[in-house]
Amino acid sequence: MQPLVLYNTLTRKKEEFKPINSPFVGLYVCGPTVYSDVHLGNCRTFISFDLIYRYLLHLGYKVRYVRNITDAGHLEGDQDEGDDKFAKKAKLEKLEPMEIVQKYSLGFHNIMREFNTLPPSIEPTATGHICEQIEMIKEIINKNLAYEINGNVYFDVEKYNKLFNYGQLTNRKLEELLDGTRVLTGQDEKRGRLDFALWIKAKPETIMHWPSPWGSGFPGWHIECSAMSKKYLGETFDIHGGGMDLQATHHTNEIAQSQAYCNKNPVNYWLHTNMLTVNGATMSKSKGNGFLPGELFAGNHPLLEKGYAPMAVKFFMLQTHYRSPLDFSNDALQASEKGFERLMEGYNTLNYLKADSISNENIIELQLNCYAAMNDDFNTSVLIAHLFDALKIINSANDKKTKLTQDDIDLLKSIYQNFVFDVLGLKNEKIDSKTSQALSKVMDLIIDIRTKVKTDKNFELSDKIRDKLNDAGIQIKDTKEGATWKI
Ligand code: AMP
Ligand code: ZN
Q1: Beta-bridge partners for 146
Q2: Which residues contact 306 (CB under 8 A, 6 or more apart)?
Q3: Ligand 1 pocket check: which of 42, 250, 313 to mutate, most ligand atoms within 8 Å of Cβ?
Q4: 427: which DSSP letter?
């Protein structure tokens, strides 16, 4: 079996995954900003990293998965010098800022549970790590790579770029980046066009602020992730992830801060998920085109024709590779819903499939194909195609068109368990395996009785049994080898 390779945004190529201290793996993912509900686009990113976390666990790695909660500051960008978003929302909803944080953090956790994602190992908050952020800023100032003006602290990008490479993550030269930014005016405090805030001075109306060596204020947009990843995963760790929209600014600045602080490149593998779009436009909080998972489940959004179960939505997302764009559409969702149902029916069928003494299928190869797909940069799209191959075999065996041994059936069950349930994190919402095993036994009994009834030439009763089962959604098919059934 080939080793796990992943596409590293930093080097722009696929690389074999080699953890610094195997079997331990450090994984950091930029978490949600909890001043509003997460939309479906945010969920796509968190579901993708849940998949990556699950697969690393499946391979036997001991993963420390850190996903932060941004509960302070978070200006929209480096040009944004406005109010703290939490304080704004607190005023609007007439709540304490920390009530806003609590409300939307709980909402986020509920949605993640609905999508059957695993909780991270550590979920640190920005407000719980103000001291660490201040310490880091102090050290960057000591290194002469940041400067203070009027209670604000800025990172000096041009000075940093003389020692390191500021555009390394996006593969762009400083000159190109400078060309793309606004020329400074006399109003600007910062020295360089690309300089960004590490610490922002509190205004009289600012609600959330903390004391610091530069006066009262709050941290800039990016420093929390540098401080918290270093604290929990060390100065250099294995994987850092987030959505592609974070690459050019947030992650570029995170690298700069961490490298300025400890002279080391902080992350070995940078992984970025592509965006969920609606009619080709990125779903985003600021554009207001994002719909909430709850609206999708209930079907109460103008863009939706009906509601969809969380697992059908998750399956829809996982059918596309995490690095490919995914456009939302009712048709695609409906197709995914049907596909997911068929896949789950296959699992139920497996529970009552009768083994043959010989086999016509190569299930070991099928399992290897599943691993090959996942080892190729977590390619769920190809994995799911192989799972449908498994489904085809199961249905053919049920229709007695192919033969499977008990070993084949057991291996197919373990493929479902490993890939569908453990790695993709899907759940059989309609029927669990105990119920399906019980149903299988009851159906064996009914088929035996019906065979006896037919042998006794009581066709009226045998047809009645068939029709009643049909009314209950169970179809019986009489074949030369005996009767088969499916839901
Ligand atoms: P935010 O709460 O806006 O900071 O975003 C939380 C996470 O969701 C980040 O990793 C973003 O990159 C990601 N994200 C935001 N919008 C989308 C989208 N439309 N599709 C996929 N991921 C997104
Ligand atoms: Zn971050």
Answers
A1: 155
A2: 299
A3: 42
A4: -
Q: Which amino acid is at 326?
A: L
Amino acid at 149: I
The angle at the Cα of 161, spanning 156 to 164, to the nearest 5 degrees, equals 125
CATH code of the domain occupying 17-273: 3.40.50.620
Task: Report the share of the chain in percent with pLDDT over 70.
Answer: 95
**DSSP category for residue 349:** H
Calpha distance 291→285 (Å, rounded):
9
Rounded distance, CA 392 to CA 72, Å? 51
For the entire predicted model, the pTM comes to 0.88
Give phi and psi for 81, each to the nearest 5: -115, 20
3-state class percentages of the chain: helix first, strand second, coil last, to nearest 5: 45, 15, 35
Does the Cβ of 30 fall within 6 Å of ligand 1? Answer: yes
CATH topology of domain 277-423: Isoleucyl-tRNA Synthetase; Domain 1 (1.10.730)
Segment 167-183, tens digit of pLDDT: 999 999 999 998 878 87
Separation in Å, CA 291 to CA 104, 143, 277, 298, 300 = 15, 45, 11, 12, 10
323 close to ligand 1 (CB < 6 Angstrom): no
What are the sequence ranges of the domains in the chain?
17-273, 277-423, 433-486
Say how far residue 125 (Cα) sits from the centre of its chain.
19
